[in-house]
Amino acid sequence: MKKHILYVEDEPAIRQMIRFALEREGYKVTEAETAFAAREAVANQLPDLMLIDWMLPDLAGPELIKRFRKDEVTQSIPILMLTARAEEEDMIQGLDGGADDYLTKPISLKTLSARVKALLRRSEGHSERKLVQIGKLHLNRDAHQLTIEGQTVHLGITEYKLLEFFMQHVGRVYSRSQLLDFIWGRNTYIEERTVDVHILRLRKALKAHEADQYIQTVRGAGYRFSEDGVVET
Predict the structure, then answer these.
(1) Boundary-marking domain end, from 94, 126, 158
(2) How many domains are there within the chain?
(3) What is the pLDDT at residue 230?
(4) CA-to-CA distance for 44 and 58, rounded, in angstroms?
């Protein structure tokens, strides 16, 4: 699957040049010219990496990065600031605000490509484990495949996303509205009972392998993934 990069830049000519270079490298690129558009884009689909300019028309780049870092969903996404502000104080401010790397314009496209690859490798090796094992559940994130005690379990796309999310946030309770935001996206307007339907489907697939106890209902609050499958009383 192509890595997805969100590029936040208000200058169309620069966006076009960088987008062309990144797409030539095999990346999928989404453009946003404002901080508001960037947050909408993230709500629709989480990127694997973000490139963010400093001077945006509605919000400074460092402030946008701080907001992404405060959000549980986006706090671990690698961010590279790409800006014309070349003073050391600016770089310090950008990195202190949460950027993982900082490049000044004009830039070498080869340098940009190398930095992007480095950030993506670091992200994959650190926060994006490819194999997740909890109890008898084995999730291969590269293959989008679940196995239980050596047997492949076939899940729908949404059920897989739900299980992947739960296995990355063990023990925490999530309401239906939170799950809608995290799995479907914040700009998707569907009924909360849709979550219940997909949870039911996920449990049904797990129950065939006596593993449905991992997904628990917390009355009046939502759902959680229990690492040991033991229902708390």
Answers:
(1) 126
(2) 2
(3) 47
(4) 20
Token duo for residue 87: 């003073």
d(CA 196, CA 213): 16
The kind and range of the H/E element at 70 are helix 61-70
Three-state DSSP at 222 gives: strand
Nearest 5 degrees, angle CA 18-CA 21-CA 22?
Answer: 85
Q: Are residues 107 and 136 in the same domain?
A: no
Q: What is the pTM of this model?
A: 0.60
Token pair, residue 159, equals: 């059920």
Predicted confidence (pLDDT) at residue 233 exceeds the cutoff of 60? no
* Domain limits for position 16: 4-126
Position 230 in a domain? no
Q: Closest Cα to residue 115, out of 127, 99, 129, 135?
A: 99
Rg, C-alpha atoms of the chain: 20
Cα–Cα distance measured from residue 81 to residue 148, given in angstroms and rounded to the nearest whole number = 42
